[in-house]
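Please, structure for the following, as tokens.
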Amino acid sequence: MACPNRKWCAMAAHSGDISDVKFLTIAEVATTMRVSKMTVYRLVHNGDLPAVRVGRSFRVTEKDVNEYLQKSFFDAG
């Protein structure tokens, strides 16, 4: 059976163990980024922020949130 989420499977295959991965809820991501939950949902649905669907909710790895924020910085000066 093929893996339903290539990024997740690649992460698990690379590290061999995903027990060290910290998953955040949409609300926790919103708090970390200081934006609304709707903004985080938009990022997830647009594919800008990778997420794993668990039942009817989403989980985002802390690593992916940090990478997204690092990519989002720009020089305003």
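The radius of gyration is 13 Å. Helices lie at 6-15, 26-33, 37-45, 62-72.
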